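User: Here's a chain of 244 residues. Predict its fold as tokens.
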Amino acid sequence: AVASDSGFVVTGSTSSYGTGGDMFIVKYASDGTLSWNKTWGGSGNDYGKSVAVASDSGFVVTGSTSSYGVSNDMFVTKYSSDGTLSWNKTFGILYVSSNSIVATTDGGCVVSGYIPGPVEDDLFAFLGKLTTSGTLSWMRTLSDGSSDENPDYLNSEAVATTSDSGLVIAGERSGDVFLAKYASDGTITNCTSLMCHTLTPTLSSPSATVTTPSATITTPSATVTTPSATITSPTMTSTTIVAP
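Assistant: Prediction complete.
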């Protein structure tokens, strides 16, 4: 993510520093100089998957953790612009994975990813809104609307805000691309109860181990190539599941 000072911040995971298998967040100046770096985690594996710049010029990070919460929970952490941890939250539902986060103009953030459904091998996409202090405002799930015993597979890979203050998520639905548009309160016009569920997960504030590692920084001489890629224009089939 591009910071307000034209620098940039990245997230991921590291087994080199912290408690082992920790999430990390690193801030660089615009010229690539390291400003600061932090790790966050515990005895399990913690993965940072997405980072966004908050309205106060701080940073919000989301991903998955097996160190805190129920088991393989989603987490959200909030940092000030200098890398100080402001708060962290986990969501108490088994095997929740958050893939993307976006900051909102009210100081909060929205996360998206997937959770297990009621049928074995089910995956439902989810969308969750947090306030500026990390309180959960609402959380929605999206399935394909069927009530049969065939597994659904909806995984939200990305979330973005829209010009009308709404939200849009994109991802995979059983091998297809799907796109869903929400209002700012997380609702979809004319959406049936089977397709738009409301969840109330258990939130916790873990006492995570935070470190400031002395990482080794190098400037590699990378090889840059210009491949001759094959470009095609496929004919796609589009299906509207919920009409406005």
